[in-house]
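== Sequence and structure of one protein ==
=== Format: two labelled lines per protein ===
==== Data for this protein ====
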Amino acid sequence: MKQVKVYGTIGPACRDREILKQMFREGMDGVRLNLSHTSLEEASALIEDCHAAARECGVRPELLIDMQGPELRVGILKDPVRLTAGELMDTGEIPFPETVKSVLEGRDPGQEILLDDGKILLRTEYSSHMRGIQLRVVRGGLLESRKSVALPGCTFRTPAMTENDRDQLKRAKEYGVTAVMQPFVRSRDDLIEVRSALDHAGCKDVRLLAKIENKDGVDRLRELIPHCDEIVIARGDLGNAMDLWELPAVQKHIAAVCREAGRDFMVVTQMLDSMMHRQVPTRAEVSDIFNAVMDGASSVMVTGETAAGEYPVLAIRYLCRTVREAEMFIT
């Protein structure tokens, strides 16, 4: 079997070149840059440090860029906002995208709003043309800028790519990008559009990864597979699109379809979430990683654990060693 690849996400927690070198020495194959929070230009110094650190470790790293795509996110907050369970607030207190505001205005009370991969849950209480839509905080937390927004049961008509996405693809070669992750893939048309943009940007050899984050992606999985190089089981927003207890079966289904079609797939999101603030993961987390490899994953990736967590090197160590242990068990 091919060796399972391991990816981290670059961000403030691993900005130091020495930390990046330690991550590569632990077995990291490449990194992800989330373009919902930055750009290739803004992250140029970090990208160069990443390439330099990898060279010093004898690694030829992959650079995956995660596009903005049709994903919905809150805007920029002056300071993080503490939302407390039970409090009532107005939509104007959170910089929602205009598309979200428009949908909320047409929905009956009771619409749920999930923020930051579902960590925070709001629900509309009632609507008044004079006062706007009122929101009740059901599950509180600290809300920061650019965190994800999901409205279960709602469909948004948004383009597959933003103008900024297209601009970033034109610069992909310059920064050594090896793969593009397209979020919230809804149909093969989304992938065809991105592939065309890559070709026009001179990036025919850049791999295209389709992130499955909604029910459309799950339902149309078989039509997506021929138009991408790898499927990404992105469990954050995918878990917002259904009752959370349904997610494991959907993950197993996606894995099975990919195996049947001979298509590589990646498993991501919260693989080592406890290591945001802990030096040792939970038993459930290492079991999750092990089982992803057993299911046939070609790659696994952590996000906030290395981008903003307190122990990025340790997170990669546990991820890599658990993956290698699973590989030995299989063989």
Summary: The chain has twelve helices and 15 strands. The radius of gyration is 20 Å. The chain has two domains: 5-70+159-330, 81-150.
